[in-house]
Amino acid sequence: MAKRQIFYSFHYDNDVFRVQQIRNIGALEENQPVSINDWEKVKQGGPRAIEQWIDSNLKGKSCLIVLIGTETYSRPWVKYEIEKAWRDGKGVLGVYIHNINCMKNGRCNQGLNPFEYTYTPGGVKLSGLVRTYNPAAGNAYSNIADNLEQWVETAINDR
């Protein structure tokens, strides 16, 4: 199976170490996260620059994976990424990452479902349309590694 082009959406400050572990699984496109320095430059350009950066990086992707940490649901740019990917007809899914160990913070509390706070252009809550996966504490990394490719295919087929 060909590797899919993926855009990962997450709360950078809280979850970058967990996210990097998932990106290193390698089942999907190898794309590096933006560095903190690059992200700071994008943010200095203001909201329009951030939207343009997101739009540019979502272009050509088949699926958006929201990696759900403790505060992901409340992040305005995560919401923008979800709604943009949905409008563009991309596959969308969520994976809870609270059971992935972070070298800086350990494990975290499970966050709220961000799809409860995002809507289709017609006003339908995405939580009823988008699948989320919650790997168990004992084998979260293995569960994600073993299933992420299939979850992506399911999300794309759901669209």
TrEMBL record:
Protein known as: TIR domain-containing protein
Superkingdom of origin: Bacteria
Record-annotated Thoeris protein ThsB TIR-like domain positions: 7-99
Record-linked Pfam families: ThsB_TIR
Native organism taxonomy: Bacteria, Pseudomonadati, Bacteroidota, Chitinophagia, Chitinophagales
